[in-house]
Amino acid sequence: MTITQSLFYFLAFVAIFSSLLVVTAKNPIHSVLYLILTFFTLTGEYILLNAQFIGIVNIIVYAGAIMVLFLFVIMLLNLNVESEPQKTNLMKFIGIITGGIGLVVLTAALKSTDPSNTVVIQEVDMGLVKNLGQVLFKEFLLPFEIVSILFLSAMVGAVLLARKETK
Amino acid sequence: MKNFVEIIQSSINDTLGSWIYLLPEISLAFIFILMIIADLFWAKRIKNLVAIIAVSGLFIVFLEVIDQFILIPPQGVVLFSAMIKLSTAAIWYKVLITISGLLVLLFSLRDFQLRNTEKGGSEYYSLVLVVTLGLNFMVMAQNLLMIYLSIEFVSVCSYILAAYLTGNKRSEESGMKYALFGAVASAVMLYGMSLLYGFTGTLDITNQAFYNGLASINLMSASVALLLTLAGLFFKISAFPMQVWVPDVYEGAPTPITAFLSVAPKVAGIALLITFIRAVNSGGSPSGSVFLASTENLLAALAIITMTIGNFSALWQTNVKRLMAYSAIGHSGFILMGVAAYSMTGQKAILFFLFVYALANIGAFLVIGYFSNVFHSEELEDYKGMGMKYPLVSVAMVIFLVSLTGLPPTAGFVGKFFIFSAAIEAYMLGGNVLLLIMVVFGVVNTVVSLFYYFKIPLNLYLRKAKTEISLDKGNLLFSVIIIVLALFTLFLGVFPNKLIGLINF
Amino acid sequence: MSETLNYWLVIVGILFVLLNIAAFLIWVERRMLALWQDRLGPNRAGPFGLLIILADTLKLFFKEDWIPPFADRHVFVIAPAVIVISVLLSFAIIPFAPAIQIVDLNIGLLFFLGMSSLGVYSIVLGGWASNNKYSLLGALRGASQMISYEVFMGLSLMGVVMLSGSFSLRTIVEAQKDYWFVLLQPVGFVIFFIAGIAETHRLPFDIPEAESELVAGFHSEYSGMKFGMFFIGEYLGITLISSITVALFFGGWLGPAFLPPLAWFAIKTAGFILFFILLRASLPRPRYDQLMEYGWKILLPLTLLNLLVTGGIILFLNQP
């Protein structure tokens, strides 16, 4: 096993483990912290794939901004262990059954596919900012522009719903 | 450095070459920004400025969409490195979406609830326009990224619109439920898309590599990936198993938005579903696509379940908006019948049915809005005896309901007839028995729908009003639109060829 | 072998120097503040009161390290470490001199932005874990302030990136051979510096701690070396923002040949650090809503305008 491979497995393990902790943690703040850890491991995976730009943007945007807002909101809501809605045992049971069935179907369906070929990065510089920018503004120009309108309209909506009317 | 500038310039040139095909969409985006600015600076001085810009702007967009019929070559144009494709069919869907957008804007102008929200109406109109923009991209999309983006676009704006009546518990609940269900649906869809991309290595679903990649792997794996992706679309067209959100959202949202949600996203969702089915079935191999039978079976089964669930649940409803919500689920089932038959017979029947459905459904919601303006209720109980007090509108309501049931002499009859005959034709061509079973279920469901639709005229005409209070006069604008829509419904029922002749491509 | 050794020496050297500078700044700040405010400042221990550094450090180490019983223990301990780690990591990409740089990443500037965006966790988590209303208020203020100012901190740097065509700090410094970027990007520089002050939550933007209204804000409950970490983190932050400013806008190590490059870098950086202290001595603290309004309504549009104009001019000048 090369260093890259063992790093991959390590990061993948931490990613899955911490995302499980996100779900199981009783305290919502701890959940968010584990989620941040998950994002860090994902950044590690991106860097292993030679996509430094995506990796660092993942930190800036997700770990650095969105998760802080998550924390912010959770603090404002003052959620804590006691106020977490308690699910009945029946609900948990149903949840386990449905989730289990979903897992079985997915594994059954995907088991029979051949393992994919090893990813060979043809262009080493593929993930660099320059190349990414060129792709973004040529092939993906239209989605890029649409996203900007989408964000604008979402912003209008968010402000609208949150604004307090003073009369 | 030089290199960058060249790239920017070449991409600008590319864009300039294809902007003419995107004229309606660019106009929509422009009008949206104009509305925000107008709302900020001049809304206080000129009353209803934003609404006026919205209606006139959307009308201009409508003309631009019509103009595209002449603009494009018969085989359609592929734009922006195969992100979207503008074909004649797509333009038809866009026409339908724009018309329903216009009707809904007019509807909203005089809606009681919307006029009395504390938020004012300006953002409402701009959001309706942006939804239209998203829907336009939805019907043209043919790249997984564009598909996801446009669906998300429509969803995000719809959540806000459904929750627009802040302070109204029902509306807030409706928006919240819509957002939660929608988030799950798009997560499932995204998971499916990631599998599809992993299997095929391409995002462009019309690319031959997409089909080849899917056909070369195990059928089960490919089906699971496709099914997960389609789940997001089923959410938009409210088909089984993603239909649970419909009644609560339709009941709580402002009535014009309910009318819009029951028509426009469904039209776009069906268009996208057809794009998908075509991509999956367009195998280059002479023996046809490996997915042909399975997609047909899947769609037929879903059509049967969806319409049965919708129509039977509607029987017990006492709230008119809720009743119409279940009826909308039922109709999704009927449209899916057409989609199941699509690979054999084409989309003429679907398009005609959608047209007819849009007219009648928006018309029916307009009447509901009209009544709710008058006596602020959407309960079936309160409709008692109103037929005599508001004769014209009530007659129009009956026409819409007859059309939704699918009885002559209304357009609904012709629409259902086309769908049924398309299904039977597909059975003859392909010999899939499930299609025949589907038709039988369709007929049974039509009969069932008769029972709940006629609860409304029953209350309107045959029951005595509970109290003899004097009520306001109805709104003139509403009456005019309602009557025009009703006349159209009748006209298309008698002369369906006027529209069928146009939808020839 | 010697290459690796050299590399390690650079790393250890930078770490050692930085930590000492941070401690030294405590003395500098107090003396300078005293000078500007017409006081004496610390002048008892040692020559010019220099030994106050030692005294302060010893005091911090020997104080009782107390974790309040009502606090969330783990988060409480992690929080102060986060700021020191994130700031120290940022120093990895700074070219102090042609030969003295830990790593020259091609996304160097983004790495700096990423690390500085992590610094906010220290405040948010520290404030929350303290389980004290003043701390929580400080944390909330800190989060919103830093998130807001991060937006145009990043955007204000993009003009420099456009001019040099790279995110690598070394390339950016080398691109300033003819003229410093502050001449071409004066607006970008001013906005970046303001955002930098807000990011390090120094006066006048020290709203998260605001001792007159929030006791000490997010670090009210901290004592001993955990408090020391916040303290050191703040001075490291000042050094970081100053040295980034120098590298991006003031030609980094470039300067007339009579002094070595490292000296030029140090002199320029010291100038900015002193400016930070002068700001503290001279400006009052704005109200919280004023701060937010100033950021979103003035700085953000200005940044976007700066970006648009810069891009337009570059496109125009490079026209074939």
TrEMBL record, chain B:
GO terms for biological process: ATP synthesis coupled electron transport. InterPro entries: NADH-Q_OxRdtase_suN/2 (IPR010096), ND/Mrp_TM (IPR001750). Its EC number is 7.1.1.-. The keyword NAD applies. Pfam families: Proton_antipo_M. Signal peptide: none annotated. GO terms for molecular function: NADH dehydrogenase (quinone) (non-electrogenic) activity; NADH dehydrogenase (ubiquinone) activity; quinone binding. The keyword Oxidoreductase does not apply. Keywords: Cell membrane, Membrane, NAD, Quinone, Translocase, Transmembrane, Transmembrane helix, Transport. GO terms for cellular component: endomembrane system; plasma membrane. It is found in: Cell membrane; Endomembrane system; Membrane. It catalyses: a quinone + NADH + 5 H(+)(in) = a quinol + NAD(+) + 4 H(+)(out). The chain crosses the membrane at residues 20-42, 49-71, 91-112, 124-141, 147-166, 178-197, 209-235, 256-277, 297-316, 323-344, 350-371, 392-413, 433-454, 475-495. It comes from the Bacteria. Its main location: membrane. It is a multi-pass membrane protein. Residues 141-439 form the NADH:quinone oxidoreductase/Mrp antiporter transmembrane domain. NDH-1 is composed of 14 different subunits. Subunits NuoA, H, J, K, L, M, N constitute the membrane sector of the complex. NDH-1 shuttles electrons from NADH, via FMN and iron-sulfur (Fe-S) centers, to quinones in the respiratory chain. The immediate electron acceptor for the enzyme in this species is believed to be a menaquinone. Couples the redox reaction to proton translocation (for every two electrons transferred, four hydrogen ions are translocated across the cytoplasmic membrane), and thus conserves the redox energy in a proton gradient. Belongs to the complex I subunit 2 family. This is NADH-quinone oxidoreductase subunit N. It comes from Solitalea longa. The gene is nuoN.
Automatic annotation (TrEMBL), chain C:
It is a multi-pass membrane protein. NDH-1 shuttles electrons from NADH, via FMN and iron-sulfur (Fe-S) centers, to quinones in the respiratory chain. The immediate electron acceptor for the enzyme in this species is believed to be ubiquinone. Couples the redox reaction to proton translocation (for every two electrons transferred, four hydrogen ions are translocated across the cytoplasmic membrane), and thus conserves the redox energy in a proton gradient. This subunit may bind ubiquinone. The chain crosses the membrane at residues 7-28, 44-62, 74-97, 109-130, 151-173, 179-198, 235-256, 262-283, 295-317. It comes from Solitalea longa. It catalyses: a quinone + NADH + 5 H(+)(in) = a quinol + NAD(+) + 4 H(+)(out). One of its GO terms (biological process) is aerobic respiration. It holds the Pfam family NADHdh. GO terms for cellular component: plasma membrane. GO terms for molecular function: NADH dehydrogenase activity; oxidoreductase activity, acting on NAD(P)H, quinone or similar compound as acceptor; quinone binding. This is NADH-quinone oxidoreductase subunit H. Its EC number is 7.1.1.-. Belongs to the complex I subunit 1 family.
